[in-house]
Amino acid sequence: MPAPLFKRWVPPKQVVKSASPVDVVANSPNPSRTTAESTPVKTNLIVDETQMEPPKSIKKPKKRKRSAGANEEEEETSKKHKAIFSKFEKASKLAEARSQREEDEPTDGAEVQEAEELHDLQPMPQPAPVPEPAFEPTFSTLPTWLAQPVTVDASKTLPFTELGVDPFYTKKLEKQGFKEALAVQTALLPMLHPGFEQHLGDICVSAKTGSGKTLAYLLPIIEALKDRAVPVLSAIIVVPSRQLVNQALQVAEELCAGTKIKVGTALGNVAFASEQKQLVRLRAQYDPTAAKELHEKASRQLQTGSVERGGIFDDLKDMPLDHVPRYDSGVDILICTPGRLVEHIDNTTGFLLNAVRWLVIDEADQLLNQNFQGWATVLMGALHGETPVDFLSAQERIRKREGDANSIWSVALPARRQLTKVVLSATMEKDLTKLGTLKLKRPKLVVIQDEVAETQPLDNEENVFELPSTLDEFAVHVGDGSNKPLHLLHVLLNFVFPGIQTDVGAKEDNSDSDSDSDTDSSSEDSSDGEKDRSVADHISRVLIFTKSTESASRLSHLLAVLEPSFKPYLKTMTRALTADASRKLLKSFSTGAVKILIASDAASRGLDIPSISHVINYDIPTSITSYVHRVGRTARAGKQGQAWTLFTKTEAAWFLKQVAKGDSVKRQNKKVKRMEWKESTVTANGKKKTYRAALKQLESAVTGHAEAE
Ligand SMILES: Nc1ncnc2c1ncn2[C@@H]1O[C@H](COP(=O)(O)OP(=O)(O)OP(=O)(O)O)[C@@H](O)[C@H]1O
């Protein structure tokens, strides 16, 4: 029943003359509630003080005689009160009648339920949720050029002739076996060639490993410089390692053969002074006015003591009368590592970048992440900064003077150089802070991907990397990793060089009482009859990655002991190798004289050996990017390849979740295949014993070495 609107005031009927709590019959506000009236309710009655008898000790006030006027006043007051009371009683009766009516009125079910719910502890009924439309961002935190790249189908190929490539070069390419331009080349060549499709701005390229990026940027540059007679530094190609400098140099030299284009390198493999001589040629130019100015400047600097050692004033000393030093470039194209480039910018007098028309940054994500010596900032300063007047050619001086004076003659001068930056990687990151250091102008991002139709969300800032479609991936759980070399051996013997005549355990088969080696000998034993091939008979070539060059050396030693037939074909690429030695090693690996190459991550980027059939991650890579580059050493330019990864119990979660099943790595309808075999399989046939012996040998070799030191 709903509560009455207000509590009715009832005038006191009876006064109980007692100071202590007493039992009283409660006065019900509702006369109809007989039960309440008849039930005595024990309550503490607070008695009206005015109606209580005063204590005897307190004197009663003396009664005053009432006057006739006072009586009249009292009567009037009592009349007023009565009127108020009667009005009040009427209103109370009306309210009661109304509430009674409401009670008696029939109500439908819904109302009853509602009333019930109001008095219950059940949650209040809520309105049905309004369906929210799926969030489709209409904005992006990325700039348009990054959020909406130009996508090119990875399977798109075109004859080089259709791309406007000069027949001089198409013939060369055909000789190398390159019949058609690969997707990245079909996209980049028109953008870099002069013509309608040329992009007058900078270009970022994201294309899979082994997709032909090197030729894509070198060919248009070399074509444009074809008729060059006198070298002018026109293109700088920055790559992260010496090996990659040599690799790009090889491609460039093949293309430049038969032209006067000069390709130079700066990678620190020769003395700095001889590199300087290769890059900059000093000559004396007869120019009495310039010579006078320069001598005056030199004497002023001598007075203030601010003459630079090895600078232009040093060269001035050796000049004949009225001659000034002039610096010509020794190369048209410079391929270099960033560190050495910075050294030349800082220390090579006359090494000027004011004529550079192409700046290529290959493996850009790695270079920008490592930004050693602040190379990008130094390079941008040299590229975009003003060239000191003393180093300008006569033509450049006129242009500068006319330009400064805003002369009409400046329009008659040759146009300013157009600088184009080409930034490439297989794992291009959409990191604006890093890309910002390159000061890109009107940039365009070109993405070569398998499924062009698959549009990425507008605000997708995640970096997604694609693997070659010709790559097959395998993963092997190696328990706690204590027998990892034996697992590797198992992969090599069964999947890379299957059926070879193994040396291991043959002599010890029966004598070996090792508990680990007496079970499950299924895999190798079953193929014993077919073991008639040697490593040399196989065309397979395997690149094994370890976490460091030290572990590469250790593994190399262990493998040679575990499987002696591998020894003549097994080599390690360490940091200790000179540039020449590592070039020779890579050559023998590509010819097949070496079949197993063990290396650290240093070899994971850009290395192009088309004949690598297998990559094995002996030590798990430290990032998804590293995985993509490591496995990208195989399955290059449309060839088949396999990538194997050995992972331990502790590495399983990261590898399986992030690499094998994560969204950051795109595989075309392919999955990483889990390969499983028992631990006893890899330790069988005395291999465990041989492994222990190999470990002991390694230990004594290391200790001996340490003692010798
Ligand atoms: N048009 C072509 N046809 C056939 N093969 C080609 C063509 N262009 C390049 N190649 C070959 O493709 C292979 C990979 O090229 P390249 O080294 O330039 O790849 P990449 O994209 O730079 O790879 P990575 O990102 O791993 O450095 C090379 O062996 C190269 O000779």
Q: What's the number of extended β-strand segments? A: 21
Order of strands in the sheet with most strands: 1-12-4-11-10-5-9-6
Q: What structural category arises from helix and sheet content?
A: alpha/beta
Query: Major sheet, described briefly?
Result: 8 strands, parallel
Global outline? extended
| Rg | 46 Å
- Identify every distinct bound molecule in the structure, by name, code or SMILES: adenosine-5'-triphosphate
Number of helices: 24
How far from one another are the termini?
A: 100 Å
Strand content: 5-15%
Mean pLDDT: 80
Provide key terms for this protein.
single chain, alpha/beta, ATP-dependent RNA helicase, Helicase_C-like, 24 helices
Description:
It is a single chain. The protein is of the alpha/beta class. It contains 24 helices and 21 strands. The strands form five sheets. The protein has an eight-stranded parallel sheet with strand order 1-12-4-11-10-5-9-6, with helices on both faces. A seven-stranded parallel sheet has the order 16-17-15-18-19-14-21, with helices on both faces. Helix 6 runs parallel beside helix 7. 32% of the residues are buried. It binds adenosine-5'-triphosphate (ATP). The site of adenosine-5'-triphosphate (ATP) has 19 residues, from helix 7. Belongs to the DEAD box helicase family.
SSE order and pairing:
Elements: H1 34-38, H2 68-104, H3 109-118, H4 144-147, E1 150-153, E2 158-159, H5 167-175, E3 180-181, H6 183-192, E4 203-206, H7 213-224, E5 235-238, H8 242-256, E6 263-266, H9 272-279, E7 280-286, H10 288-304, H11 312-317, E8 323-329, E9 333-336, H12 338-347, E10 358-361, H13 364-370, H14 375-384, H15 394-404, E11 420-425, H16 432-436, E12 444-449, E13 465-466, E14 471-477, H17 484-496, H18 522-526, E15 542-545, H19 549-562, E16 570-573, H20 579-591, E17 596-599, E18 614-617, H21 624-631, E19 641-647, H22 649-660, E20 665-666, E21 673-675, H23 679-683, H24 687-708
Parallel strand pairs: 1-12, 4-11, 4-12, 5-9, 5-10, 6-9, 10-11, 13-20, 14-19, 14-21, 15-17, 15-18, 16-17, 18-19
Antiparallel strand pairs: 2-3, 7-8
Bound molecules: adenosine-5'-triphosphate (ATP).
Adenosine-5'-triphosphate (ATP) binds next to α7.
